[in-house]
Design goal:
Elements (H helix, E strand, L loop, with lengths): L3 E13 L4 H10 L3 E14 L4 E5 L6 H9 L6 E6 L8 H7 E5 L11 H12 L3 H15 L14 H13 L5 E5 L7 H16 L3 E5 L12 E6 L2 E7 H8 L2 E8 L5 H7 L4 E4 L5 E7 L5 H11 L2 E7 L3 H9 L9 H5 L15 H12 L25 H6 L1
Parallel strand pairs: 3-7, 3-8, 5-6, 6-7
Antiparallel strand pairs: 1-2, 1-4, 8-9, 10-12, 10-13, 11-12
The structure holds adenosine-5'-triphosphate.
Adenosine-5'-triphosphate binds next to strand 1, strand 2 and helix 2.
Length: 399
């Protein structure tokens, strides 16, 4: 049985369209206007128990809203969703027992309490036995070095320490599935590595994981499936390795040669490749499509022309691939494996989307390498709260 099953799941937010200031508020009172925003647009998504899924997309694509729909914090405008057989927004308490959630941008720890007290409160809320509780604390101490953080008041934790404590909170009750929304955001490299190690360990233990991130290094080694969402629609759902294979065919061989040779000599030897000279004398990069040439053939060919002193071969990171998808350079459509496979892409309609311009600007920000489009002022990027207040009150009233 599928653990998560969503069919045509849709969330449309309504935002009051009001001019600023008191005058704007008065006008809005007399004549109420709203702008609608389709944050999640008829997505189909299923997750098997034990799967680790990367859910990626540009700012404003609908990732956090999907997670909120799966947690029950937000009620869908259309479609169906079940997690472990439970409809999340109808039975939030029962759903909470089977899920763990981490929103990297906010904490679920009590701000003025020591971490130990927050965990004890969660223990009581989830009705965890003393033995299970102690076993979990021991485990978190081992993998997250939690012990040192237990007596510290949340507001005194650094961001990295807070994230480790939040991970412990999300997993304390051994949930069936854990949703991790940007678990490495703002962390330094050392703490990121630690969190990534922890994710890999969770994966190895068979925990079902849904991971959203802008840092695609987070998903390598943890997720074998990638779902790409853009403009509220799922535009790709398939294997991570397959995406890399199909859309990341470029290889780069960086060479340091010991014999005087020109880029033109190398280019003449490899007509199917692009040759770029490096800054230092004898340095060259040969780029090619791996379906046309192999790194082995390049090395053999170069060795016939010159002495090879050093070699490095680069594969594109998945981040480059996804960035190209966002930038519209690559047209990802489901391949034969997807069409027949376990994760068919969303059959969502391709109607004009009110978020189009917004998403286009987010795509541009992402494509330009902006790791966080908040810095680029993408609207709505900070407009995410983890509370029930997420649901637009006007929208609720209109139901
Ligand atoms: N409570 C809300 N009221 C109105 N619009 C909202 C609300 N929450 C989200 N949105 C809008 O829905 C769209 C999707 O937002 P969401 O937070 O799901 O995107 P995201 O992919 O998680 O983006 P990010 O990477 O920036 O976190 C955005 O345009 C956002 O402004």
């Amino acid at each position: 049985m599928k653990l998560v099953e969503a069919r045509a799941l849709t969330k449309i937010f309504r935002r009051p369209d009001k001019e600023p200031g008191l005058r704007g508020s008065m006008k809005h009172l007399l004549r109420r206007r709203f702008t609608t925003m389709t944050a999640v647009d008829a997505i189909d998504l299923s997750i098997e128990p034990g799967e680790a899924l990367a859910y990626v997309g540009p700012n404003g694509a609908g990732k956090s809203t999907t997670i909120k729909l799966l947690t029950g914090i937000v009620e869908p405008t259309g479609g169906e969703v079940r997690v472990g057989g439970i409809v999340p927004h109808r039975d939030r308490q029962a759903n909470a027992r089977q899920i763990g959630v981490l929103f990297g941008q906010r904490t679920q720890l009590w701000w003025d309490l020591p971490v130990r007290e927050s965990l004890a409160l969660l223990r009581d809320m989830y009705d965890i036995s003393p033995t299970d509780y102690q076993r979990q604390l021991d485990r978190f101490d081992e993998v997250l070095d939690l012990g040192a953080l237990l007596p510290v008041v949340t507001r005194k934790l650094s961001l990295g320490q807070r994230m480790r404590a939040d991970l412990a909170c999300a997993l304390l009750h051994q949930p069936k599935i854990v949703y991790l929304d940007e678990p490495t955001i703002g962390l330094d490299i050392a703490v990121k590595d630690r969190v990534r190690d922890f994710l890999r360990q969770l994966r190895a233990e068979g925990t079902t994981i849904m991971l959203t991130t802008h840092d695609l290094a987070d998903i390598e080694g943890t997720c074998e499936r990638i779902v790409i969402i853009d403009d509220g629609k799922i535009i790709y759902d398939g294997g991570l390795a397959e995406v890399k294979d199909r859309y990341a065919r470029e290889r780069r061989v960086h060479l340091q040669l010991g014999t005087p040779i020109t880029a033109a000599d190398l280019a003449a030897r490899f007509p199917a490749a692009a040759v770029t000279p490096g800054e230092a004398h004898g340095e060259f990069t040969i780029s090619f499509d791996k379906s046309l040439l192999t790194a082995g053939a390049v090395l053999t060919g170069v060795a016939q022309l010159a002495e090879v002193v050093e070699v490095r071969i680069d594969e594109p990171a998945i981040e480059d691939v996804v960035r190209r998808v966002y930038a519209g350079e690559l047209n990802i459509t489901p391949g034969p494996a997807d069409a027949a496979g376990a994760h068919p892409p969303s059959a969502s309609p391709t109607s004009a989307h009110p978020a189009g311009t917004h998403a286009a600007s987010a795509r541009a920000a992402y494509a330009a390498g902006a790791a966080d489009a908040r810095a680029a002022g993408v609207p709505g990027a900070e407009d995410v709260t983890g509370a029930a207040g997420d649901v637009d009150p006007a929208e609720e009233a209109s139901r």
